[in-house]
Amino acid sequence: MNKWWTKHEGLSSRLISRASKMDDSIQPLFTFGVIADIQYADIDDGYNFTHTRKRYYRNSLQLLRRANEKWKTETVQPSFILQLGDIIDGFNKKYEASQKALDTVLTEFDRTGIAVHHVWGNHEFYNFSRQDLITSLNSQNTDFAMREDEIKQKHPDNEQSYAYHFSPAPNFRFVVLDAYDVSLIGRQENSEQYNQALKILQEHNGNYDLNQPPAYSGLEQRFVKFNGGFGQDQLEWLDRLLSLSDQKLEKVTIVSHLPIHPSSTDPVCLAWNYDDVLSILYSHKSVVCFMAGHDHDGGYHQDISGIHHLTFEGVIETRPNNDAFGTVYVYEDRMKLKGNGRVPHRSLNYE
Ligand SMILES: Nc1ccn([C@@H]2O[C@H](COP(=O)(O)OP(=O)(O)OC[C@H](O)CO)[C@@H](O)[C@H]2O)c(=O)n1
To answer: How does it assemble (predicted)?
Structure first.
């Protein structure tokens, strides 16, 4: 086992057992739901590209329905739901069913009456242009995003990067990042971001098919077309935002479709410039957690600065009789993830 590949290390199991012993009677400050990689399509079951994992395209909607039912009956109603990207599958495009599939899933989410924060993943871009997504899957303007918020740092609307922040309760902030800011998917061929992405992939991936990972092992495998990176403007914005959060002694949770810690994911799912984001996070004291999807097997790692990196198990590769979602209970001194089905319980103490 390589040193950086420690997602099932002892620390994780110790945290799981500590979580199960925790006192349930204390009222959380607020709660929120999390779900990843629903990848709904009204098509028969299939497999991932390498035929190693079964995908339940139609049933993913039933799993979302079960998650919604659970969230609706929580004693402390979730303040919001984080949908970590890949809400519908790329296959919808082939059947000209993208809009219908998206409407189906959004209608299902609507039944809860709970605000949903949507992250954009690779499958969003297989179905829609960025311009389409700005109209149809844009949660930047939900009720509490930016409202009555002392931190007004709005992300510069540079070529429509989809990054924003919100504060659901005093002293807590959530940041949604755009992991496909620099990418070959979702960017126009004449854009700066597309050309930057092409240069990166040409430098690191010698394959004709750029979806094919460049090496059998190691972090270089992340240089594939179905991943992407964070642009300089977005990184600078994040840095400035976190400085303000530091000053306000906030606890910050950051979310993105792509994981950024090598020990929280298979390297083939890692963001290209994950190290740039990590350096920024390490220069601020406010960040407590980073949540992502994309790696359907899930993962977890607490890094050297105490940040919890959670990669959520994907709905699409979850058997019909199982579940894959979580509810996070937020307290002054910790967060507690109550997992369902493949998503394990975890206690996430702030260090
Ligand atoms: N070796 C490969 C792998 C994939 N593709 C094509 O790339 C597109 C995205 O692949 P897909 O597996 O659907 O992406 P997900 O985001 O669902 O999953 C990411 C990780 O694999 C999950 O662990 C799709 O069009 C594939 O056909 C490829 O050409 N060559």
So the answer is: Monomer.
